[in-house]
Amino acid sequence: MSAVTRQKNIDVQQDLRTLDQLPIGENAVVHRLDCGRRVGCRLMEMGLLPGTHVEMIRRAPFGDPIEIRLRGYFLSLRCDDASGISVTQNGESESFSVGTSFDIAQPLKPHSVKEERLDRVLRVLVAGNANAGKTTVFNVLTGARAKVGNYPGVTVSRASRVITLPSQAKVEVVDLPGIYSLSTHSPDEQVAVDEVLGRRGNAPDTVLVVLDACALERSLYLAMQIIETGVPTVVAVNMVDEAARAGIDINFEKMSKWLGVTAVPTVASAGQGLDVVREELDVALGQAARFEVGWEGFPESVTSAIAVIEGSLEGVSFVRTPASRRAWALCSLLSQFPDGEGLDGLPSSVRQNVDKVHREAKLADLSLAQDAIAARYQWIETVVADSKSASPIASETRNWTELLDGILTHRVYGLSVFAIVMVLLFEALFTWSEPLIAAIESLTGGLQSVATGFLPDGVFEDLVVNGVIAGVGNVIVFVPQIAMLFLFIAVLEDFGYLARVAFVIDRLMGRIGLHGKAFVPMLSGFACAIPAVMATRTIESRRDRLITMLTLPMVSCSARLPIYVLVTAVVFAGDGRFFGLFSTGAVVLFSMYALSVIATLGAAAVLRRTILKGPRFPLVLELPPYRVPVWRNVLLTTWRGLRRFLVDAGTIILAMTIILWALLSFPRSGEIVERYTSARADLVASIPNPNDRDDALRLLDGRESGEQLRHSVAGRIGLALEPLIEPLGYDWRIGVGILGAFAAREVFISTLGIVFGIADADEENVSLRSSLQGAQRRDGSPLMTPLAGVSLMVFFVLACQCMSTIGVVRRESGSWRWPIFMFTYMTILAYGSSLFVYQLGSFLGWGT
Q: Which of 132, 138, 251, 574 has its CA 20 to 30 A from that of 61?
C-alpha cells in the first residue's frame, strides 16, 4: 500500500461518524453498514449502500427515530440501527468490484413469443413497493367488485378479480402485498414472493410491476429481480405527473430497451395510461417465460454461491427453468429466515446448501447480500442515468412535503397536531358514529317487534327474535365504527400522515416493545375493540400484530361505560368528594380507565418478553410525499374491510349469539309457564281495564323471564359458579349477568334486569338500581357494597367479555389458538385482580 493510500485511509477513518450522529441538514456518504443482518439487508435493498449520498432531515419529537433523504425519497430508521451505519463527509467510501464475467451495463434479455395461450384463466400479479400506487393501479384495472379473502393457510389479505383484456382474454388480476424486494423479511412478504416464484401453485403468467417515477432507483430494484425470474413482465411507471413537476423527464423507450420489457407511463389516480397497460398485458400474456439465465453482472463470490444452490434445485417443482432456479437461489442469499421458515417444503439438500453457502461466506468475511445488492444498484444507476434527465425545477410536491413535515413532525407543533388528529379519531368513533349505531339498534328492535307480532309464541319465535335478529344486530351494530375507522385510516394513509404517526410515537411505543403503528389501534380500542383489532393490519410484523390484538380488549371500550355508570350509581350514590372538587363516582370512573391503560401496556410488555418473545421488528419506514387522497381508493378500502368483517367475523358472531341464546333460554320449565299463565288469567279477571293492567302484566313477564333464566343452562352454571365467584364479592345473580355479558358487555345490564324481573332495563333504570341497592346475600348482608362494586368493575376492565372480539381475533390471527389464549389469560388476570381487590379490602375493613 502506498503512502498516499495509507494517508487517505487514515483521513477517512478520522472523518467517520455514525449516521445517527450526523447533524440535521448535513450531507454524507455511506461508508459501511455494520447493523444487524435483518435490518442491514433491508436498508441495502432500499438503496442505503456504501457510496450512497444521504442527507439528515430531522429527528422525531422524542429524538428517535431519524429521517434521512436518499435516492429521491425519505426514509426513517431507529437510532439503534443508524448507529451501525458509518458515514463520511469527505466524499470517500468503500468501492466494490462488481461484474467480472459479463458487462454490468448489458440490457436484460427480452422474452420470446408463445405459439398459443393455454385454455384457462390466466393470472396476472400486480407487484410494487408500498406507496408506489400499486393498489390504485389494481383498483382502476378491476373496479369495486374485486374479491377479497386470504391466501390459503395464512392470514394475509388477497384481493383479485377476473377482468377482460382488449383481446377478450379472461385474466385474474391479483394485488400482492407491498414489497421492496424478493427477499423475505416478514410472512406477508413471504406470501408475495411465493406468488411471484410460483410456490403457491402455478407460476404467474405475467407480472405487472408498478414503479414510483419519483424514486426510480429504489423501485427498479424490485422490477429487476422480477424480470430475472423469466416471467413475462410489464412495467407501469406511476405518478409521472409528480415526476414532471419535479423536473424529471423519463425516456421510456430507452428504459424499455434496458429492461427488456415494456415500460408504460401512468397516472393511476387519474386513470391515465391504464388502457395502454391493458394492451401491454395482452402482449405479455402472448410471450413465453424466458428459459435462459438473465443478467449475470454479479461478482465471483455471488456467482459461485448461486451455482452451489442451483445445483440442489434440480427437480424442484416450482423452479422449472434455469432462470427461475437462479432467481430463487439469489433470493435465498438474502432471505431473512435463516432458521428455515422460508425454506419449508424444499428438499433437505437445498436447506443444507443454503446453510453451507452462508457459513462459508461468514468464514471468508464475505457479505454475499451486500455484493449482490450493490451489483444490481450499480446496473440500476446506469439505467437511470441513461433514461432519466432532471432539470433544476423545484418540486411542488417536495416543497409541500418538507413544509408539512416541518410542522407535523415538530417537537411541539407535531405532537399538538398528533393529539388533535387522535382526538378527532376518538370523537368519530365515540360520537359521530352514535346516531348510526342508534338507528341500527332501533331498526333491530323494530324487526324484533314485527317478528314478535307476526310469529306465534313459542321457541321458534324466541329463536328468530332473540337469536337470529339479535345476532344479526350484534354484527351490523359495529358497522358504523368499523367504517369510520377504516375511512379514517385510509385517508391518513393516502395522505401520507399514517407513516408520520409511527415516526412521531415510535419511541414511546418502543418502551413497551410495540411498533409505532400500534398506537392508532390502541386508541381506537376506547371506542370498540372490533375495529381496533382489524386496524392492526397496518402493522407489518406478525408478532407486533399479535401482541397488539391480544392486549387491545383490555382498553376500556364504550360497551363497558354503561356497566361503570350503573355500578357507580348503585354503590357511590352519595355526594362525597375528593379534595372537595371531584365526586367519588368521577374518581372511580377515571381509575377504571387508568387501570385499563396500565393493564394494556403492562400486558403488551409481558407478552413481548415471554410468549411472543423475539427481536423487535425494525422500523425501516418510507415516509411518502403528502398527496391528496384518492377517494376511489379510500372508499374501496373501507368497503372491502367492511365486507370482510360482515362475511368472515360476522358469521362467527352470529353463530356464537345463537349458541349463547340457547344457553340462556333452555331448558324451559313447563311448570313455570303454567304457573304464570294462570297468574295472568287471574290478573286479567281481576283488572278488566287493559290500560290499568299493562304494568302488572309486564311485571309478571319480567318475573317469569327471571325464573326461566334461573332454570336455564346459563342460570344453572351461574348457581354452580357461586362458590367460585363468592370470594370476589358476587353471588349467582352477578354470575349469570357475567355469562350473559359474553354476548356483549352491555348485555350484563339487561341480563341483570331479567334476573331481578325487570323488563327493558338499562343503566339509568331506577327499578334496577333500587333492586341492586336492596339485594341481599343468603346471610342477609348487602350484595352491592362499594368494595363489591369496585371488584366488579375491575373484573370487567380486565376480562374478555365479548364474543365479537374473540371472533375477530380468530379471523385476524388465522386460528383459534390465539383467541383461546387471550380469553384464558384475561379471565385469569381479571379473576385474580378482583379477588385481590375484594379480599384485601375486606381485610382492611372496607367491605361495607
A: 132
User: What is the per-residue pLDDT across 440-481, written as a single tens digit (0 to 9) for each?
Assistant: 888 988 998 898 888 887 788 888 887 788 778 877 877 887
Question: Do 142 and 79 fall within a single domain?
Answer: no
Residue 546, in any domain of the structure = no
Q: Distance between CA 733 and CA 88 in Å, rounded?
A: 72
Percent of the chain with pLDDT over 70: 84
pLDDT digits (tens, 9 = 90+) for 63-91: 889 999 999 899 999 898 899 999 998 65
Assign residue 146 the CATH number of its domain.
3.40.50.300
Q: Are 211 and 264 within one domain? A: yes
Burial of 284 (0-12, 13-18, 19+ CB in 10 A): buried
Assess if residue 843 is contained within a domain.
Answer: no
Q: Give the DSSP letter string of 803-841.
A: HHHHHHHHHHHSSSHHHHHHHHHHHHHHHHHHHHHHHHH
Place of cell 415494456: 262
* Alpha helix segments (H runs only) across 215-367: 216-228, 240-245, 252-259, 274-285, 300-311, 322-334, 348-363
Q: Name which of 524, 546, 550, 551 is nearest 535 in CA terms.
A: 524
CA 641 to chain centre: 11
Q: Check residue 335 and report its DSSP letter.
A: -
Q: Cα(321)–Cα(330) distance, rounded to whole angstroms?
A: 14
d(CA 525, CA 352): 46
For residue 363, is it within any domain?
Answer: yes
Q: End-to-end alpha-carbon separation of the chain, Å?
A: 88
Please choose, from the candidates 770, 772, 753, the residue with its C-alpha nearest in 3D space to the C-alpha of residue 762: 753
Question: Does 578 score more than 80 pLDDT?
Answer: no
134 and 181 share a domain? yes
Peptide bond into 65 cis (omega under 30): yes
Does 505 or 650 have the greater pLDDT score?
505
Instruction: Decide if 802 contacts 745 (C-beta within 8 A).
Output: yes
What b/e readout covers 826-842, taking b as 16+ CB neighbours within 10 angstroms? beebbbebbbebbbebb
Structural domain tally of the chain? 2
Query: Quick one: pLDDT band at residue 599, thresholds 50, 70, 90?
Result: very high
CA distance 215 to 530: 37
Q: 754 Cβ partners below 8 Å, 6+ apart? A: 702, 705, 706, 709, 761
Return the C-alpha cell found at 156.
394475509
Dihedral sign, Cα of residue 627, residue 628, residue 633, residue 637 = positive
Residue 80: which CATH number? Answer: 2.30.30.90
**Average of per-residue pLDDT across 816-843:** 94
Q: How far apart are CA 484 and CA 649, in angstroms?
A: 18
Say whether both 291 and 168 belong to one domain: yes
Residues in the chain: 848
Residue 765 banded pLDDT, cuts 50, 70, 90 = low
Helix and strand totals (H; E) in the chain: 36, 18
Pick the last residue of a domain from 43, 69, 88: 88
Contact between 470 and 661 (Cβ < 8 Å): yes
Q: How many CB atoms lie within 10 A of CB 394?
A: 9
Q: Are residues 147 and 57 in the same domain?
A: no
Examine the domain organization and report whether 236 and 279 are in the same domain. yes
Q: Does 172 map to a domain?
A: yes
State which of 350, 365, 389 marks the end of a domain: 389
Compute the average pLDDT of residues 653-659: 73
Is residue 344 over pLDDT 70? no
Encode pLDDT of 316-340 as tens digits.
766 667 777 788 788 777 764 444 4
My answer on whether 72 and 148 are in the same domain is no
Which range marks the domain in which residue 339 is found? 122-389
Q: What is the pLDDT of residue 580?
A: 58
Q: Which helix (H) or strand (E) holds 249?
A: strand 248-250
What's the whole-model pTM score?
Answer: 0.77
Q: Is residue 156 located within the same domain as residue 83?
A: no
